[in-house]
Amino acid sequence: MQSKIKHIGILGGMGMSSTILMQKYLFEMHRHNYKSRPLPLVTYYIVDIKKVFEYQFAGQWKPYADYLSECIIKLEKSKCDFVSIAAVTPHIVYDSLCEKAKIPLLNIFANTAHEFEKKKIDSVLLLATSFTAKAGLFERNIKKSVKKVILPNKKDQEFLDSLIYRSLAVGEKKESYKNEISRLIGKYDCDGVVLGCTDLPLVFSQKDTSIPVIDTLRCHASATLRYSYRSE
Amino acid sequence: MQSKIKHIGILGGMGMSSTILMQKYLFEMHRHNYKSRPLPLVTYYIVDIKKVFEYQFAGQWKPYADYLSECIIKLEKSKCDFVSIAAVTPHIVYDSLCEKAKIPLLNIFANTAHEFEKKKIDSVLLLATSFTAKAGLFERNIKKSVKKVILPNKKDQEFLDSLIYRSLAVGEKKESYKNEISRLIGKYDCDGVVLGCTDLPLVFSQKDTSIPVIDTLRCHASATLRYSYRSE
């Protein structure tokens, strides 16, 4: 008998387009790798992004974590077996969310780290929000898999924050972003690039560059589906 | 006190891209019309499309309905308060599904009919699968709202079936489809067009023609969100 397929809970809406991309990845990966089995049930809880951004920009990580925990409780009540957060920045409070959750929370870094090992990347340029960069999230979580995490300089980080919060999070997409990101990458001496914010794959992917690109959202979708089918 | 927001169940995967479009519509409509309230929980159950197509093409509507009822039970168990089917063709067995369901099933035609009234369309060209056309689904469900439902001729219906089942359902999209659909519409004397298959808005919309277009999926997403917020 095949083991029970776990019901996936997605905490999303940070932003909305990347949450839809997560669903697209899940569907595509199911078609490619698990076609003989039913797709798991997927329940989405979409956060109040205004509230999330307010706490985030004010650095109020305690109420931020409390609010996200409340959202996770909604997913627990809908009988989800585990939760994947479809965004990187909330992983700043991952430990605190785990403490309060009754069901497992997949960590977005678990599978990302594995991808660095597979691609043999020694030094990686981090393209992420300044919150993720400042919190040292990648350095801490992938330290066994990559020797050096390179952070963009102040000006480039400002460009990334503006791109993420002023454009992608509100559903704006320009073709020019591809070139701007390519130019930014060209300035740094690195073996690979990590799209360390789940909004970035909306405008940039491996197709746009010859340097290895790690797409955190894609890694997370893959880990989410694998975990759902895993017998325990 | 605001009334309870109902948890939406979506029976989808027929096809996959239109299910993602349904989610996109829900998100957009929430942003435009209900921004001050949280987005409802949304749970997706994705059907085994191979099974669904097999029953459908063999005209085995009893096992088809039985299978869809099983899927709806999974949504009931996840505490959904009601179900929207993100496809038109399954509405052939809508009455039978309602009989077995413990929670309400929104009918995709309820809001579509309303749209015909709003746009004052007398005669409408039906772009749908041959199953929907043969079953007389639109004629039966929107008869109070529109005087005449025009069906495409045999060759045009074959083109639509091929477009839907061989291309859109498997994620293929060509720019040329827009022109082919426009040419098809041009052959008929009608006041409006209904995209009576939820895959069609993936390649054709009001932007592509001057004649009024009713997008069934968009109407259904709007009705779904409204029902979720409605107090009872």
CATH A-level architecture of the largest domain in chain A: 3-Layer(aba) Sandwich
Tally the helices of chain A: 10
* Major sheet summary line of chain A: 4 strands, parallel
Distance between the termini of chain A: 13 Å
> Which chain pair has the greatest contact?
A-B, 24 and 24 residues
Q: Tell me the strand percentage band of chain A.
A: 5-15%
Task: Indicate the overall shape of chain A.
Answer: globular
Please report the total strand number of chain A as a whole number. Answer: 8
CATH fold descriptor of the largest domain in chain A? Rossmann fold
Helix content of chain A: 40-55%
Oligomer: homodimer
The low-confidence parts of chain A are none
Q: How many domains, in number, for the residues of chain A? A: 2
- Note the run of SSEs of chain A as H and E: EHEHHEHEHEHHEHHEEH
Give the structural class of chain A. alpha/beta
**Order of strands, widest sheet of chain A:** 2-1-3-4
Considering the chains and any ligands shown, give keywords for the structure.
homodimer; 232 residues; alpha/beta; 2 domains; 4-stranded parallel sheet; 10 helices; globular
